[in-house]
Design goal:
The chain is of the alpha+beta class. The protein is 23% helix and 36% strand. Strands 2, 3, 4, 5, 6, 7, 8, 9, 10, 11 and 12 form an eleven-stranded mixed β-sheet that branches. The chain has a three-stranded antiparallel β-sheet with strand order 1-13-15. Strands 14-17-16 form a three-stranded mixed β-sheet. A hairpin with a 3-residue loop joins strand 7 and strand 8.
């Protein structure tokens, strides 16, 4: 029989195509070993990919869980004294600013002039007959020598409240140095006047001066009284702050009561309001030891 064509050598591409070929035993074993190693590498890659996918799913699940958000920090316990800003002027007068009120001081040798730019302020004027003290607000001038009064600048009017002495209320265009002969109004202690833009017209009627009752006067000036603000404050710290600014002395019946946490805002001069807060919200009662001393206790 004639001989067939010669068998081509075994290559890597045809290493496993041995059943139909006359490959040598060594070449077959080498081909099998390479295929085994290749399959092992494929299995390792698949395992790594599966692990990575599982981790990604786990992380994604944890990220999307609604209960895994970071909690906000708890409020910090505090005891704060809130009071208006007090400003001492060069002449010895005092200004108290309510909230974000703003003034501009313009003193000269002949005149003590203060412009109320915004809000409400209270003025305690040092006596100096030779240098008038004039507060200008919204086209209105309030003139004093030695007195105390509050001025509130509103969008539509100017409100003047006198707490001591007497002031003259006039148009700001009037001569600030010369004593007014016929101003818009004279306002004495315990009275108030509201001047609107229409009252500044030359032919306008004089604004009406009204008496202010003692309760109303106290209410309108309440912003001047320091307030105590407690936020989750140990009662012992609240008592210490109140004793520094209040009009009576408080003490605790036991050290354990001082650990009680309290919250609220009261006026520093209003002992009754503080005692009502402690009794209604925390069951703490006050026992009078003397006219100026109270003992706080919690009935069992």
């Amino acid at each position: 029989m004639p001989e067939g064509p010669p068998t081509p050598p075994l290559s890597a591409d045809h290493a496993l195509d041995w059943p139909g070929r006359a490959a040598t035993a060594d070449a077959v074993r080498a081909a099998v070993e390479r295929r085994v190693q290749q399959r092992r590498r494929l299995r390792r890659r698949a395992a790594v990919a599966a692990a990575s996918l599982g981790l990604a799913v786990l992380v994604g699940f944890a990220w999307l869980r609604p209960g895994t958000r970071e909690l906000a920090p708890a409020p910090t316990a505090s005891a704060t004294l809130i009071q208006p800003v007090r400003q001492l002027l060069a002449d010895g007068s005092w200004i108290e600013l309510n909230g974000d009120a703003q003034v501009r001081v313009e003193f000269s040798p002949a005149l003590r002039r203060v412009a109320l730019v915004r809000g409400e302020a209270h003025f305690e004027v040092a006596h100096d007959a030779a240098r008038p003290f004039v507060v200008v607000a919204g086209g209105v001038a309030v003139r004093a020598v030695g007195t105390a009064f509050a001025v509130r600048l509103a969008p539509d009017d100017v409100n003047v409240l006198v707490t001591e002495g007497r002031v003259a209320v006039d148009r700001a265009a009037a001569d600030p140095v010369a004593a007014p002969v016929l101003p818009l109004a004279f306002v004495a202690k315990g009275a108030s006047v509201v001047v609107a833009a229409a009252d500044l017209a030359p032919a306008a009627a004089a604004p009406v001066v009204v008496a202010v009752s003692a309760p109303e006067l106290a209410e309108r000036q309440a912003w001047r009284v320091p307030r105590l603000e407690f936020n989750d404050t140990p009662l012992r710290e609240a008592v210490e702050l109140f004793n520094r600014h209040g009009n009576v002395s408080l003490s605790l019946a036991s050290p354990a009561l001082g650990e009680l946490r309290v919250s609220g805002t009261v006026r520093a001069d209003n002992t009754a309001a503080l005692l009502q807060l402690l009794r209604a919200d925390y069951g703490v009662e006050a026992q009078r030891r003397s006219d100026r001393e109270l003992v706080l206790r919690r009935p069992r």
